[in-house]
Design goal:
With about 180 residues, the chain is α+β, with helices and mostly antiparallel strands. It has helices at about 5-30, 95-100, 120-125, 135-165, 170-175, and strands at about 30-35, 40-45, 55-60, 70-75, 85. Strands 1, 2, 3, 4 and 5 form a five-stranded antiparallel β-sheet that branches. Strand 4 (about 70-75) and strand 5 (about 85) form a beta hairpin.
Length: about 180
C-alpha cells in the first residue's frame, strides 16, 4: 500500500483549511457578519433535499467557544426560509466563497500617525531647540495636535475622504422611512 493520500483525504484537508480561514475572518470582524451581497454555495442536504441545491448565505456567527453558525436560504425559494447550514453539507471549495465575501481588515494597526514633530522642525522655523527636553517636545506636540483638531482636522478629513472615494454609511433613519 502506498502512502499517497486519497482524493477524499485531500478534499477533507482543503475543507478543514477553508473552515479555519472562515473562522479567522469572522473573528477579525467581531464574531459575526450579515451579508448585503449574499455568497451562494452548493449544499448537499440529504435530510431536507434529495439533491444538491444552491444556498444564499445571509449571515455567519461564531460563539466564544468557536461554534460556527451559518444561515441561509435556498436560492430561488420565494419564501426565503432561513435555516442553519451545516459545514459538512457545503460542497468542497465553496466555504471559501463565504470567506471571500467577508471584508477582512488587512492592516495591522487601528490608528495612523498624521504628523510628527522634531527638534529640526523648530530649528527650521528659526528656534534654538538644542536645549529643549523630551517632556517639552511632547507637550508641544500635544498642543499642536489639539490645535489641529479644533481648527482643521475634521473638515479636512471629510473633504479628503470624499476625494479618496470613501463612501459614507447609510443613515438608519433613511432606511426605516423607505
Amino acid at each position: 500500500m502506498n502512502n499517497d493520500k486519497s482524493i477524499y483525504a485531500c478534499y477533507e484537508e482543503i475543507k478543514q483549511r477553508e473552515i479555519r480561514e472562515l473562522k479567522a475572518a469572522i473573528k477579525m470582524v467581531g464574531g459575526e457578519f450579515a451579508f448585503k451581497r449574499k455568497p451562494i454555495v452548493m449544499v448537499n442536504r440529504d435530510g431536507c433535499y434529495p439533491h444538491p441545491c444552491d444556498v444564499c448565505i445571509t449571515s455567519v456567527e461564531m460563539s466564544d467557544d468557536d461554534l460556527l453558525t451559518i444561515r441561509g436560504y435556498e436560492s430561488g425559494d420565494d419564501t426565503e426560509e432561513i435555516f442553519d447550514v451545516d459545514l459538512v453539507d457545503i460542497a468542497y471549495g465553496h466555504i471559501s466563497f463565504i470567506t471571500e465575501a467577508i471584508p477582512v481588515r488587512t492592516f495591522s494597526q487601528e490608528t495612523f500617525s498624521i504628523s510628527r514633530l522634531s527638534r529640526e522642525d523648530l530649528e527650521a522655523r528659526g528656534f534654538d531647540a538644542s536645549d529643549v527636553d523630551d517632556k517639552t517636545m511632547q507637550r508641544l506636540a500635544e498642543k499642536l495636535g489639539d490645535d489641529y483638531c479644533e481648527q482643521l482636522f475634521w473638515s479636512s478629513l471629510e473633504i479628503l475622504a470624499e476625494c479618496f472615494g470613501i463612501p459614507r454609511k447609510e443613515e438608519e433613519d433613511d432606511e426605516e422611512e423607505e
